[in-house]
Each structure stands twice: as C-alpha cells, then as structure tokens.
Amino acid sequence: MENILITGGTGNLGQTVVKKLSDHGYHLHLAVRKAVGDHAENVSYYQTDVSDSGQAEALVGKIATGKVTIHAGVFLAGGFEPGDLAKTSIDDITRMINMNFATAFNVAQKLIAHYKTVGGGKLIFVGAKAAMDSKAAGNSLAYSLSKQLLYNYSELINESEKKAGITSHILLPGIIDTAANREAMPDADFSQWISPNLIAQTIENIIAGNESKDVIKF
Predict the structure, then answer these.
(1) Do 128 and 97 form a contact (C-beta atoms < 8 A)?
(2) What is the pLDDT of residue 38?
(3) Counting runs of H as helices and runs of E as strands, what totals does the chain give?
(4) What is the reported pLDDT for 106?
(5) How far apart are the first and last CA of the chain?
(6) Angle at 20 between CA 132 and CA 54, to 5 degrees
(7) Contact at 8 Å (CB) between 120 and 165?
(8) 3-state secondary structure 7-76
C-alpha cells in the first residue's frame, strides 16, 4: 500500500481528494490543525501546524519511520483573500504566503530530503489559473502572489531534482465548485466552475503514473 501525505485534507477540496484516494486503497497521512475523531482504517491523522518548519520536519519523520516510504505529497492547505493593489498591505501578503506557500514549502522540502533516500517520489501542488493572469491576479493580489510562488517553486524543483527521481506537478484550476464558493458567489454561473471530483481524479492519475504533465490547467 502506497503512503500519501496530505495537507489541507479536511477542507472543501481536501475531503473530496481524501475520499478518492482512500477509495483507491492508498494509506493517507493527513496533517491537521485539530484532532479528528473516527476515520477510515487507511487514513491516519497528525495534529500539526505545517506552516512551522520544525513541525513539518517532525511530521515527515514520524510518518517515514522504519521501512515506511512516502510516495507522494499532496498540498491542499491554503485560503483566499480578495484585494487589489491599493487595498493590499504587506501583512496581507505575508498572511497569504504563510497560508498558501509556507504550508507547502515546509513539508515539500522535508519530503524531498526523504525522497532522496528512497529513490524518488511525487509532489502535487494546487495553484490557481487566475493567479497566472496579470489582469485577473490584480483583484486578489496577495493570494495571487502566494500562488505564483507555488508555481515557481514547482518549476524549480523539477529543474533541480528530476535526476533524483523527484517530480513536481502543479494544478491550475479556475474557481472550484465547493459549497463555500457557492455561498460566497451565489449569482455566479456554477456550470463554468471546476468540479472537485475532476481535481481529485487528476491527483489520483498523477500518483498512479497515468498523468505526467508538470503543469495541468483546467
């Protein structure tokens, strides 16, 4: 049974991804901020603040004990804030970077070190399609900057680590069709939004070796 480390697995998108991967028989290791009650036999929870580098390192070490190999990391932790250039402060940018980038960077960095001892592994990030469009990005500046960092980080990993058998993938969805997004934008055309199931299936395809693209746009 392959071991998958997931951050943000209890969130709106995360719950769909966890169900998909759990149903496919992977052993899932979820980093969570708060203790979780009953769960599936192949899902383990670790109360961890992954925005803290030391806790991220302890998390990977706790999972990868003995002969346990982590095969993939899926980084779903994060959040969204609107705000254009005039309304964005440096504190807003720092908060979004901590939420969307640091949570992924810290764990991925430790996973890369683990992968180098076991012959490689996969990293899967979730960026944002709008963040890569300069016109759209201006409406959520801090958020977009944090997602652009994720994109650049993924590209740098592939440039420097592929020879070690480490591959990085970043998904660039539009608006994801979650209950929270519907509540926030009740007048939007939901038919144009991206299904969480499609994202979850894409992640499973990457882990299973059926999808090899480094950048996947929806």
Answers:
(1) no
(2) 60
(3) 8, 7
(4) 98
(5) 29
(6) 65
(7) yes
(8) ECCCCHHHHHHHHHHHHCCCEEEEEECCCCCCCCCCEEEEECCCCCHHHHHHHHHHHCCCCCCEEEEEEC
Using alpha carbons, select from 30, 39, 11 the residue that is nearest to residue 74.
Answer: 30
Q: How far is CA 172 from the centre of its chain?
A: 11
φ, ψ of residue 28 in degrees (nearest 5): -100, 135
Left (φ > 0), alpha (ψ -120 to 50) or beta: where does 83 sit?
A: left
Under 8 Å between Cβ of 11 and 181? no
- Tokens (6 digits) for 19: 């169900």
Cα 181 from chain centroid? 18
- Tell me if 198 sits within 8 A of 155, measured CB to CB: no
Q: Which two tokens stand for residue 30?
A: 């979820």
3-state class of 97 per DSSP?
A: helix
CA distance 95 to 206: 30
Q: Cα–Cα distance between 61 and 127 in angstroms, integer?
A: 26
Which comes out higher in pLDDT, residue 184 or 118? 118
Q: What number of other Cβ atoms are within 10 A of residue 44's Cβ?
A: 16
Residue 162 corresponds to which tokens in the numbers above? 């592929």
Per-residue confidence (pLDDT) for residue 37, from 0 to 100: 63
pLDDT digits (tens, 9 = 90+) for 75-91: 999 999 999 999 999 99
